[in-house]
Design goal:
The protein is 80% helix and 0% strand. It is an all-alpha fold and 143 residues long. It has one domain.
């Protein structure tokens, strides 16, 4: 909790304060998007939605693993792949929102280690999903 408060303070000092000094009429599109991202990322709803997505993703992975182990298959039904795509898209959207809100400080301000960890996790999810789609497409071809 304390780390979250420090991160919010850092965002407030490095990103929000300069934005607030800019009149709304003079804001560029980039500044407007950043302002919207900041408002979204700093809301409690965003925190709850992110936590719910992580928990549901863990349950989803457990269900998929259970299916694969019960039926001794690696070729799972397509709805598992659709669920994987959905959770990957949600994780990517959350990461992009936090990167836009934090600006360059996302990579070096308070909490930077967690931000880099999230970046690696999402990249790994994307690679895994791409490999799953490639394997699925290769499995659909008949000789």
């Amino acid at each position: 909790m304390a780390a979250r408060l420090r991160a919010r303070k850092s965002v407030r000092n490095h990103v929000i304060r300069p934005l607030l000094q800019t009149p709304l009429e003079a804001e560029t599109l980039r500044q407007r998007l950043q302002r919207l991202a900041i408002e979204c990322v700093l809301s409690e709803k965003f925190d709850y939605a992110s936590a719910a997505a992580v928990i549901l993703n863990a349950v989803w992975i457990g269900c998929r693993t259970d299916y694969e182990s019960r039926y001794w298959v690696t070729d799972v039904p397509s709805f598992f792949l659709i669920g994987d795509m959905l959770f990957t898209a949600l994780a990517l959207l959350e990461l992009i929102m936090r990167m836009v809100a934090g600006g360059c400080g996302f990579f070096y301000d308070q909490g930077w280690k967690w931000n880099w960890f999230d970046l690696v996790v999402v990249f790994t999810q994307l690679v895994d999903l791409a490999a799953s789609l490639d394997i699925g497409a290769a499995g659909d071809q008949s000789i």
